[in-house]
Amino acid sequence: MSMRAVLEVIALDAEDAVAAQAGGADRLELVTDMAADGLTPPVGTVVAIRAAVDIPLRVMVRLADGFSSGGAGGVDRLAGVVGDLRAAGAGEFVFGFLDGDGLVDMAAVERVVTALDGCPWTFHRAIDSSADRDAVRKQLDGLPGLDTYLTAGAAGGVDDGLPTLVAEAARAGEPGYEQRIMVGGGLRLEHVPPLRTAGIDAFHIGGAARSGGWSGAVCADAVAQWRSVLDGLSAQQLAV
């Protein structure tokens, strides 16, 4: 059985996508405007990236900074955006909305899930800013298409969230914990060994895939370094 870890890289444009694939990325997350922590990219960008690479990609569904859906009007817009993205060839998505109590905005999430019509999706780092991580998982349990949580374990990043990530990995298979944990948010190579030991097999990088940080494009060599570390750890586990 393969133990290859999944490496997802944030791409802002086709140049990023090509470099990420060349470096060994398994999947892309497509966004725009990282100053707002990643918003929905233009449809034209999605089309260009889909034409440039053949690895899977997940498109962000998020129209404003923060984790609010924007109320009834915002939810209508989100559903419309999903329709446009699907018409452009997108088949996988990333999103997450919280209500005023810091729990899942179920009306918004369910509306978007309906628009997805079975497409796979990730609940992103909204979980790290929620009032109750376990409650979030229980709220979302059973929604069609949800297969991944993108999380750092804490709002402050993986440095703060590592114990939580390890504890949640130990609950794999419990109700609300069947989905894959994909770690991202201040992730560094030194975090990978303890996360792999805990059974986590999916990793998400953004600035770490760029030799000049967010001021530069994705660097194939930077992605390849992550790929090499992940593959080396997987090989060690297979040998045990």
TrEMBL record:
Q: TM segments?
A: none
* A Pfam family: CutC
What is the top-level taxon of the source organism? Bacteria
The entry assigns this protein to a family as follows: Belongs to the CutC family.
UniProt protein name: Copper homeostasis protein cutC homolog
Organism taxonomic ancestry = Bacteria, Bacillati, Actinomycetota, Actinomycetes, Kitasatosporales
